Amino acid sequence: MSVVEQGRPLTPAAQRVLDVAGTLFYERGIGGVGMELIAAEAGVTKKTVYDRFGSKEALIVAYLRTRDRRWRAFVTERVTAAPGPRAGILATYEALDTWQRRHNARGCSMVNACAELPDPEHPVHRVAAEEKAWLRDVYRRLVTEARYDDPESLADRLLILHEGAIVTYSIGGLPDSARIARDTADALLPR
Predict the structure, then answer these.
(1) Domain that holds residue 99
(2) Looking at the structure, do residues 90 and 145 belong to the same domain, yes or no?
(3) Which sections of the sequence are annotated for DNA binding (predicted)?
(4) Using CA atoms, how far apart are residues 110 and 123, in angstroms rounded to an integer?
(5) What is the largest CA-CA distance in the chain?
(6) In the 8-state DSSP scheme, what is residue 33?
């Protein structure tokens, strides 16, 4: 069982491996990055990579979970700072705009991983589904707090706007997609 699976803190070498793997997986694609390259870039042996993570699959999952934790914290901070649920909903799109410009030029790491590893039984699909369900729950909670009608349907619409903004930013060449999605959500939400 790897260090990550055991839930133990990462050693400095393991953290370097995870950081390097995360950068390489995101920038070059999971299939384009081998364990040898990760080990060389992290300044460790390939044996160290396997000792710490167990397998490439486990390293991929650790990479996605790390990005997911960062994303959730980023969104949560902005939603919490918003003056009310309606502003919190809009803050998710503002967070997306900032995130995309800083961390997400190649699109959603979850969607990219699922596209590269299409077997629905691969663990990346579970990680991606958990992240998308979390964001939908954020919308549902905020919509409910704002006392809007039909919170389930509205949460779905807000999530679809969010996900569409990611795709149109990374693939559709629309650099203001998150701002446009925010304005669309603003128009969609009752006043």
Answers:
(1) 62-188
(2) yes
(3) 34-53
(4) 11
(5) 58
(6) -
